Amino acid sequence: MLAEKEQQTLVLLTCLEKQLKAGNLWQRKPPSREALASELPFCYDTLRFEQWLQFIFIPKMEFIISNKHVLPTKIALTPIAEQAFNSRIILSKSIINTLSELENLLSV
C-alpha cells in the first residue's frame, strides 16, 4: 500500500502524461541512448523538455515510488517548463500547473 504522498504523486504523473498526449507532445519512439545519456540538467543539449519529462522524469519518479525509495523533497520544474513552453503558453498552461502542484506536494 502506498502512502498518501506517493499516491498523489502518481495521480499527478498520470495527469502530466495525459496533458502531454493531449498537446501532441508525447512521442511513440524514444530518443537515442546517446540523447538520453546526457549529463546536463534536463538533457537540454539533446532533448526537448517534454521529451525529458516523458523519458526521464516520469519513469524515474515511478521507479522511486515502485521501489519505495524516498521521494525528492525539493524540485523546481516550473521555471524550466515556462521557458521551454514560452511560445506555446496556452497549450502548456495545464502542464505547468500540474508541475507546480507536484512541486508543492513534494515540498511538504
UniProtKB/TrEMBL annotation:
Pfam families, sorted: DUF446 (PF04287)
Q: Which GO terms fall under biological process for this protein?
A: single-species biofilm formation
Coiled-coil intervals in this record? none
Q: Which domain of life is it from?
A: Bacteria
Q: Mind telling me which SUPFAM superfamilies this protein's record contains?
A: YqcC-like
List the InterPro entries: UCP006257, YqcC-like_dom, YqcC-like_sf
Q: Enumerate the spans annotated as YqcC-like domain.
A: 11-105
Q: What is this protein called?
A: YqcC family protein
Q: Which organism is it from?
A: Litorilituus lipolyticus
